[in-house]
Amino acid sequence: MFQGETAITVDDKGRLTIPTSYRDLVVGACANRLVIAYNPFEIGCLWIFPHDEWEKVRDQVNALPSVKAVHRALQMKLVGAAAMVEPDGAARVLLPASQRAAAGIEKKAVLLGMGNKFELWSEQAHLAKIRQTIGEDDISDDMTELRL
């Protein structure tokens, strides 16, 4: 569904404009309803889900037994801090200030289409992640089957 990398600017009010190439996909995938949540695995990144996709993730995460601290942490970051947003007439969405601050997202950011969701990276975190290489010791068994 979503793929590609787009450099974006967050305006002074904390809004990002959905790139033109994604607008029809967003309308079709979720009737313009999006959910913003913390990425629990990467620093400097927020996840933006189409609402229908978000409901699947939310239900899986909420089904985890909350007696484990790691489950509660995942539930807090994905469900507890989730923000429902709808693009305005100019295709802008307001990023919650607390999420922007926690991810270090300021004026410049990078939006990545990652199939079923977007990742919104701070410019610095994205650059650091892109500059990392995957070493031989990092290759999983699943990756050995890829023909790149």
From TrEMBL:
First-listed, main subcellular location of the protein, grouped into a coarse class = cytoplasm
Molecular function (Gene Ontology), one example:
DNA-binding transcription factor activity
Query: Which BP terms from GO are recorded?
Result: negative regulation of DNA-templated transcription initiation
Domain SpoVT-AbrB, first and last residues per copy: 5-53, 82-125
**InterPro entries of this UniProt entry?**
MraZ, MraZ_C, MraZ_dom, MraZ_N, MraZ_sf, SpoVT-AbrB_dom, SpoVT-AbrB_sf
CDD domains (alphabetical): MraZ_C, MraZ_N
Signal sequence segment = none
From the Swiss-Prot or TrEMBL record, state where the protein is found. Answer: Cytoplasm, Nucleoid
GO cellular-component terms in the record? cytoplasm; nucleoid
Its keywords, alphabetically, are: Cytoplasm, DNA-binding, Repeat, Transcription, Transcription regulation
Q: What domain of life does the UniProt record list for this protein's source?
A: Bacteria
Whom does it interact with, and what assembly results?
Forms oligomers.
Q: Which family does it belong to?
A: Belongs to the MraZ family.
The protein in question is named Transcriptional regulator MraZ
Q: Which organism is it from?
A: Luteibacter rhizovicinus
